[in-house]
Design a protein that fits this description.
The protein has a 7-stranded mixed beta sheet with strand order 3-2-1-4-6-5-7, with helices on both faces. α5 runs parallel beside α8 and α9 packs antiparallel against α10. The longest helix has about 30 residues. It has 10 helices and 7 strands. The radius of gyration is 27 Å and the shape is elongated. It folds into 2 domains: about 220 residues, Spore Coat Polysaccharide Biosynthesis Protein SpsA, Chain A; about 70 residues. By secondary structure, it is α/β, with parallel strands linked by helices.
Length: about 325
């Protein structure tokens, strides 16, 4: 099969018939394809609409969650069930244009990119979404080294190997290019795509997505660098903190002995605030070191501790 088109959706009953008809017109008889639709616990008639559409569109493969789990869960379920050589994701709200599908397919299949991310250069979103998005995109570029302008664009194309090699969870759908790079797929680029005004319904994302997105960025950055070697992070900082506190406490004690030897009177060591700062640094350093040790034991006993991505074999 040439293409798997993945459409996660939540309460999009108005747009589904028009979207599926549009996709069918664009693809026509050019490619063999499937439509993998995941209903993320919709409370409207989205599932009934999908059932009706499937009668005239046998290429539809649909899944329905019992409740709303989020976009990442929907994408994970879809990626587990795709079979096309090229996987293209798009939102169900019709702000992504199906007219982009042929060019995205060509960039993956003929130009050999691993992942092509859409860039909504001209957006029709309110300023409450565009300004935070620019901030997170800039931070994501700095942290990941991936030069994309729009990490969170729903319109993306992948080689099938990419989606079969990554695990999308939490709110990680925003950072799929980073997950792909961590899995060893470094040929990542972007394409300017058409962004359309929302025709039906309202946005399903609130302000909390920005907080969650920032926390997930920290998580994915830490896990990618220290997930299999946590002692390198906690142990290094813990050792530094302990030595700093130990040397400071030693200096305070040496200073006290020196002045006593000279017959001078100094306040008690315990009267000095630096003494308690030194002890605190030693305690924190010890705790961090033990945290790294426990995390290292957990990592070594993990079932996927030797799970590596193999590209080729003979």
């Amino acid at each position: 099969m040439d293409i798997s088109i993945v459409i996660p959706l939540y309460n999009e009953e108005e747009s589904l018939p028009e979207l599926i008809a549009w996709i069918s017109r664009v693809i026509k008889d050019q490619y063999t394809y499937e439509l993998v639709m995941v209903d993320d616990g919709s409370t409207d008639k989205s599932w009934e609409i999908i059932n009706q559409l499937k009668q005239n569109h046998p290429e539809i493969k649909a899944f329905r969650f019992r409740r709303n789990y989020g976009k990442s869960a929907a994408l994970y379920t879809a990626f587990e069930n795709v079979s096309g050589d090229v996987v293209i994701t798009m939102d169900a709200d019709m702000q992504d244009s199906p007219d982009e599908i042929p060019e995205l397919y060509k960039m993956i299949k003929e130009d050999s990119w691993d992942l092509v991310s859409g860039w909504k250069k001209k957006r029709y979103d309110p300023i409450s979404k565009t300004i935070p998005s620019r901030f997170f995109n800039r931070v994501s570029r700095m942290v990941s080294g991936i030069k994309l302008h729009d990490f969170n664009c729903g319109l993306k194309a992948y080689k099938k190997d990419v989606v079969k090699s990554i695990e999308v969870y939490g709110e990680m759908h925003r950072y799929i290019p980073i997950l792909a790079k961590q899995a060893g797929f470094g040929r990542i680029t972007e394409k300017v795509v058409i962004h359309r005004e929302r025709k039906y319904g309202v946005t399903k994302f609130g302000l909390n997505r920005f907080i969650n997105g920032f926390l997930d960025l920290l998580s994915i950055t830490f896990i990618s660098k220290f997930g299999k070697k946590p002692m390198h992070f906690f142990g290094l900082i813990g050792t530094f903190m302990f030595l700093l506190g130990f040397i400071s406490a030693g200096y305070i004690g040496f200073e006290k002995l020196y002045y006593l030897h000279k017959g001078l009177v100094l306040p008690k060591v315990t009267d000095s605030p630096y003494f308690y700062i030194s002890l605190t640094a030693m305690l924190i350093g010890t705790q961090l070191f033990l945290t790294g040790f426990v995390a290292e034991l957990t990592s070594r006993n993990s079932s996927d501790r030797n799970n590596y991505q193999i590209k080729d074999s003979l």
